[in-house]
Write a structure and sequence with these properties.
Layout (H helix, E strand, L loop, with lengths): L2 E5 L4 H11 L3 E6 L3 H7 L5 H12 L2 E5 L7 H9 L3 E5 L5 H7 L11 H10 L7 H7 L6 E6 L7 H13 L5 E5 L7 H4 L8 H10 L5 H7 L1 E4 L2 E4 L13 H14 L2 E5 L21 H9 L2 E7 L2 H18 L4 E8 L1 H4 L3 H13 L4 E5 L2 H10 L3 H4 L4 H14 L7 H22 L1
Parallel strand pairs: 1-2, 1-3, 3-4, 5-9, 5-10, 6-8, 6-9, 10-11, 11-12
Antiparallel strand pairs: 7-8
Length: 432
């Protein structure tokens, strides 16, 4: 049986409770709108505060009248840890932004208890219907792409953001996930709040078997043009939250959530089982290992300078040992002649072929103007500098290696050549 806690001021609380009862949803408690937030933020709780939090965490849904004094990061984190769905209620149009800031769905009308109950009832599965619902669900069809690179900041996050923006241009639904447990940076680079639920909340929901595509849409932050972002850890010290089982389970759900999931991972691929005594304890690089093993495609990023190339050559062997036969697309970032001398492309190709056996390489130029414009605007370079050399190179990378377009049939190509030939003959006739 589904239970709900109603945190609403005034007579609207009883109206909502009455409509919930008609749908078979039990109202476990009705409290003041700001009571859950105050209790969750109080480090020294009285008995009443502890009882309230116990009631909230035992419920399935928290119906919350949304105001600035009724919502807090501590309350959102508490509900995420215990799998409690927060349903914001408000009659003020300005509160949509507040809900988005905390990763919540758009608020429902506060004074219309019937509509609130109906909206909540639509998301509640009938008892005994779990098996039939799972059987009727479509098979996951989405793809997972992990963006990896060696130590030294070769531009993993930049490449991940640009790939997501470019893939979304063709109408795909794209998820951008920050699974870097050493130096997460997507939220900072894109101007997003890193105090929201993010990818860590999705991983916690995996333990509760409560993670669904709808829940991922709730906790993600829209970047625009079909890209949804799951921000990373706001402190690297929280890395134990991203265990291998949790990350693997979250990425499996991502396949049903979006068409393409771009995962930004850390550099280290070390497996520390041999240097720790607690074999059941958390692993420092579990998130990276789980992401690259679950990926359908790896985008390996190298920096176009002597140090960056040396690090990539060493790290590529570890990557191949970890992912096996998974396809790897090699991208050399920040290409410029100053660091590699004459013919930098040729030197990079020769180095990678000699030491790694890599023949297919894609290059991204050192486009300082486009990169600075993207950083200043906290947006992808594809949006703020769509005609830049960096955007053109990413467009070519996606079109040729990430999501190649099927070649035209011979008849279509033949008609195109014939049409082009007629146009040229007409042009020569006019100029003659």
């Amino acid at each position: 049986m589904t239970t709900a806690v109603i945190a609403v001021d005034g007579a609207a609380a009883s109206d909502i409770a009455l409509h919930l009862e008609r749908l078979g949803i039990t109202a476990a408690a009705a409290v003041a709108a700001d009571a859950p937030a105050r209790a969750a933020s109080d480090a020294m709780l009285a008995a009443a505060g502890r009882d309230l939090l116990g009631t909230v965490t035992a419920a399935d849904v928290l119906m919350l009248e949304l105001r600035r004094d009724t919502i807090a990061p501590a309350l959102v984190s508490l509900c995420d840890r215990h799998g409690v769905r927060i349903v914001p209620l408000s009659d003020s149009p300005g509160d949509d932004r507040l809900a988005q800031l905390y990763g919540l769905a758009p608020p429902l009308p506060l004074r219309d208890g019937g509509r609130v109950a109906e909206a909540l009832g639509e998301g509640v599965a009938p008892e005994g219907g779990g098996a039939s619902s799972a059987a009727a669900a479509p098979a996951p069809t989405g793809r997972v792409i992990a963006v990896w690179g060696p130590t030294g900041a070769p531009g993993r996050s930049t490449v991940a953001v640009e790939l997501a923006a470019e893939l979304a241009r063709d109408g795909r639904r794209v998820g951008l996930v920050d699974a870097d447990t050493h130096a997460p940076s997507l939220a900072l680079a894109l101007g997003l709040a890193d105090e929201g639920p993010g990818f860590a909340a999705a991983c916690r929901q995996v333990d509760l078997e409560a993670l669904t595509p709808a829940e991922l849409s709730r906790i993600s932050v829209p970047l625009g043009r079909g890209v949804e972002v799951l921000t990373g850890l706001n402190r690297p010290g929280r890395w134990p939250e991203l265990s291998e089982e949790r990350v693997g389970g979250a990425l499996r759900v991502c396949r049903s959530w979006v068409d393409e999931t771009i995962v930004d991972v850390a550099a280290s691929l070390e497996q520390d089982e041999e240097i720790v005594s607690d074999l059941a304890g958390p692993r420092r690089n579990a998130a990276t290992l789980a992401a690259v093993r679950a990926a359908d495609l790896i985008v390996a990023v190298a920096s176009a300078d002597p140090v960056g190339m040396a690090r990539f050559v060493r790290g590529h062997a570890d990557l191949r040992a970890t992912v096996g036969a998974t396809p790897v697309v090699v991208v050399v970032n920040r290409l410029r002649p100053g660091a590699l001398g004459i013919d930098p492309r040729g030197q990079v190709r020769a180095t990678l072929e000699r030491f790694c056996g890599i023949r297919d390489v894609w290059f991204l130029p050192m486009d300082v103007k486009a990169a600075d414009a993207a950083m200043l605007a906290a947006r992808p370079a594809q949006e703020v500098a769509g005609r830049s050399a960096l955007s053109a190179a990413v467009r070519r990378l996606v079109g040729e290696a990430i999501a190649p377009v099927a070649p035209a049939s011979p008849s279509v190509a033949r008609r195109g050549r014939q049409r082009a030939g007629r146009q040229r003959r007409g042009l020569f006739a006019r100029t003659a």
